[in-house]
Design goal:
493 residues, mainly alpha, 2 domains, 2 strands
């Protein structure tokens, strides 16, 4: 028993160090982000104002316009102009925002995992750190997600609402008098503040992309299912929190702009509604095939099964309710995919949507792996602890070795870019170029600039089209008062 506890503590400390390293590398890399594409669109569509109050009004007007003409993400459409680097704060503020964004996203994910472990155990345990390490590893190491961590607009539309939604779901799990939360959390005063906080963050998060709002609504429904199965009664506190999420999602989904946008997508060869259902499953199969064949995600799940075995004796929650709600949770990734396939009219996921999908898979399937481990642990009874120790070591070796080479880990790739100065040089070059546009009002500018945003590997970089009246080029021209601007390179160079 003592040896097993020491092993768990050692694994927990190693996991904490790994978590800190992965998040730090992402945050430092994010500090070299530059304004790209839609960042200029948002700024141009919002315009500039003489003072903060007028600028907030301009942001609200833009939000209303987008709601009626393009998409219903009311919170994102308002949030983006408020801190947009083109109109507000400049490069320094932009760096601060992108670093804080990366930290916020991972903090929300870790808080969700912490709350889940609290509901499982009712107390702290070093294996909680191992579980957190598995989750962060799976999110951070298979893709750098340049459209999330290195693109301001991708962050405001997708990951910031997702992070706020995870906070809302976490608060939802903590509130409502659950048995293992403890008397302090369940006091009327704290319970009320949790409910209000969950309602506010839930409503705001529902104003992100439809992939986010749909995912969060379903996740909240799973929490309600668990609560009902656990107590055999309807939790009106949790229903109130779900109602805020659902109301925000309805406001988002019912936006006239969504239907206008879908017509545009359909005219470009998009998918009809019935085909979108079938393609949801094909996209799911393709994404899961990548995770299980091209990465070591199966080993991560094995490690979580081992954690479940080791924790099975200490479990405090209602097993039957957990198992049933956990099976429902496995459907969450499908809920994430469908609005993307339908809205964009494509049978694939953009990089920013892949991030949302991956987070839902990592959390829902990770939960299932813990369930499976708990089930096996009960079957092993007294023998569960010592085999778990051996399996823990074996799983750690598997995670680090196969079939995904450690040199392919995205933290390693990003670290190389940081050490070599690639991201820093790109940041300097881009800002020097943008600074050179100042004072050239009314000029028709040509420049030797990349025509696609992935010109810097694993990053999202500034680009221009070779066509002067392209929307990106027009927005850049507006930002600096130019007559026009275009790249001298051909498309794709």
């Amino acid at each position: 028993m003592i040896k097993a506890e020491k092993l768990c503590k050692t694994a927990g400390i190693i996991s904490l160090a790994g978590i800190a390293g992965m998040i730090l590398i992402t945050a430092v890399s994010a500090s070299y982000s530059v304004p790209v594409s839609d960042d200029f669109w948002f700024a141009a569509d919002t315009g500039r104002a003489d003072n903060a109050f007028l600028y907030v009004l301009a942001s609200l007007r833009r939000m209303a316009h987008e709601y009626m003409t393009w998409q219903g993400s009311y919170f994102s459409e308002f949030l983006n102009p408020i801190l947009n680097p083109v109109n507000v704060g400049g490069p320094l503020m932009f760096r601060i925002v992108m670093v804080l964004h990366a930290l916020f996203v991972y903090a929300a994910i870790l808080f969700f995992v912490h709350v889940l472990c609290l509901k499982m155990l009712g107390e702290k345990n070093w294996l909680e750190c191992v579980i957190m390490g598995c989750v962060v590893f799976a999110v951070a190491e298979y893709d750098t997600f340049p459209e999330i961590f290195f693109w301001y607009t991708g962050a405001t539309v997708n990951s910031i609402p997702l992070a706020m939604g995870l906070l809302s779901i976490s608060l939802m799990m903590l509130s409502g008098g659950d048995k293992v939360s403890g008397p302090d959390i369940n006091s009327k005063k704290k319970g009320g503040s949790l409910i209000v906080s969950a309602c506010v963050t839930g409503f705001l998060s529902a104003g992100g992309s439809l992939a986010v709002s749909g995912t969060l609504c379903y996740a909240a429904l799973v929490v309600i299912i668990y609560r009902f199965l656990d107590s055999r009664r309807i939790s009106f506190e949790k229903l109130a929190m779900f109602a805020c999420l659902f109301a925000g999602s309805l406001i988002n989904a019912a936006a006239p702009g969504n239907f206008a946008r879908q017509k545009v997508e359909q005219s470009g060869g998009g998918l009809p509604f019935t085909d979108s259902i079938g393609n949801t499953f094909s996209v799911f199969a393709a994404e899961m095939q990548y995770l299980f064949i091209s990465t070591n995600y199966a080993a991560i799940l094995l490690l979580l099964v081992v954690c479940g075995i080791a924790l099975s004796k200490k479990l405090k929650l209602n097993r039957k309710a957990w198992y049933i709600s956990g099976v429902f949770a496995l459907l969450t990734p499908l809920v994430t995919i469908f609005p993307v396939v339908l809205g964009y009219g494509v049978a694939w996921l953009p990089n920013r949507c892949q991030f949302i999908f991956l987070v839902t898979v990592v959390l829902s399937y990770g939960n299932f792996a813990l369930m499976l481990g708990d089930f096996l642990g009960n079957k092993l009874a007294e023998k569960s602890v010592y085999p778990a120790g051996a399996l823990l070591i074996i799983s750690l070796i598997i995670v680090l070795a196969v079939p995904f080479s450690p040199w392919s880990y995205r933290s390693v790739r990003l670290a190389k870019g940081l050490v070599s100065g690639t991201y820093r040089e790109n940041w300097i070059d881009t800002n020097e170029f943008l600074d050179s546009l100042k004072g050239r009002e009314g000029e028709a500018v040509t420049a030797d600039i990349a025509t696609y945003p992935e010109s810097v590997e694993y990053f999202y970089s500034f680009f221009l089209s070779d066509i002067a009246d392209d929307r990106v080029n027009s927005a850049v021209s507006w930002a600096y008062g130019l007559e026009s601007i275009r790249s001298t390179r051909k498309a794709g160079e």
